[in-house]
Amino acid sequence: MQTGLRGRSLISDLDFSKEEVETVLDVAWDLKAKRAMGLPHAYLRDKTLAMLFFFSSTRTRGSFESGIAQLGGHGAFIDSKVTQIAHGDTEKELGEIFGRYFDGIAIRHVTWGVGNRYLNLVKEASRAPILNMQCEDYHPFQCLADLMTIQEKKGRDLRKKKIVVSWAYAESYRKPNSVANSLILQLPRFGADVVLAHPPEFNLKPEFIEEAKALAKRYGGAFTMTDDMEEAIKDADVVYAKSWGPMMTTTTEEEAIEITRKYSSWITDEKKMALARPDAIYMHPLPAERDVEVTSAVMDGPNSVVFDQAENRLHAQKAVMALTMC
Ligand code: CP
Predict the structure, then answer these.
(1) 111: closest CA among 54, 49, 35, 194?
(2) Is the pTM of this model over 0.85?
């Protein structure tokens, strides 16, 4: 167990070592059990968390706000639109000032080419840890909950488990590719055989691909890529299929829509799930576009773990807050 997390920020998934992530999960399971038994666990009494959102959220807001309250502290929901950020508050000012008001600053800023830089500039100026509630590159708290869920369903030893991270078709808007990035960076450290599947135009940043390959080599897992969703899903233990935008190919909305429309067959349906192992689990961070991105039969079917996965956001985030904001 590595316990030196007090005051540490979590912006990239790799900001915490593998052992530190294992510590987070140990604490998360303990907190989950305590909540199940109704045992008090107010480890952050009188502590406060700023929750600054530049983009909408259901799960992230709900789980952070509830989580900090369950730990005995208080979370302040702050919509960027009602702040003075548009009128001149800089990242430095926000970090300096909120770092003095709050014991942690959680930020969601997913704008392509802007969000991650914003978080890191606030971190440079803040005396309180920065928690990444999703930027365009990483969604580390989603990934911790995902890892926790996979280990709950498949056992803690993920070596030789085939985990498919696949693009899926969706229509509503071009989603960040941060969930896929986080998964391909975190899961190889746990020895899993990670398969990334996406149509050619939906590639991820090359530096993340290279890092995933290096981590797989170092930790004895595997990392492979394909542009065939069905081929990827064959014999999978975990099918994690979600949409993201073709930002590496184009940032023009009309062009992105045109490219995306070519791949409406990339829906997770029962036929595709039948290619996976019979006990395979279906995962999605939500929100999902029902019967576009995934069929309701899969989403509500026996292999789906999406609600356990969403629940684990609460426990994983409480663990990180308890370890970093104490
Ligand atoms: N999975 C996730 O981050 O959900 P929200 O966008 O609703 O927070």
Answers:
(1) 54
(2) yes
- Cα dist from 208 to 9, 27, 96, 105, 177, whole Å: 20, 28, 31, 26, 11
Tokens 């508050």, located at residue: 89
Q: Which domains does the chain have, with CATH numbers?
A: 13-139+310-324 (3.40.50.1370), 142-306 (3.40.50.1370)
Residue 116 CB–ligand 1 contact under 6 Å: no
Distance CA 255, CA 105 (A): 36
Query: What digits encode the pLDDT tens for the residues 171-182?
Result: 998 999 999 999
CA of 292 to the centre of ligand 1 (A): 18
222-226 sheet: strands from edge to edge: 222-226, 193-197, 162-167, 238-242, 281-283
Cα distance between residue 44 and residue 179, in whole Å:
28
Which tokens sit at 261? 């429309």
60 C-beta closer than 6 A to ligand 1: yes
pLDDT tens figures, 279-300: 999 999 999 999 999 999 999 9
- What confidence tens digit (pLDDT) does each residue in 109-126 have? 999 999 999 999 999 999
- Residue from 203, 164, 168, 158 nearest 183 by CA: 164
Provide the pLDDT for residue 2: 86
**CB atoms near residue 253 (< 10 Å):** 11
Residue 80: what residue type? S
Residue type, 114: V
Strand partners, 225: 196
Could you identify the atom of ligand 1 that is nearest to the CA of residue 58? Answer: 7
The angle, 0 to 180 degrees and rounded to 10, between the axes of the packed helices 140-154 and 18-37 is 70
Q: What is the pLDDT of residue 54?
A: 98
Which phi and psi angles does 275 have, rounded to 5°? -80, -20
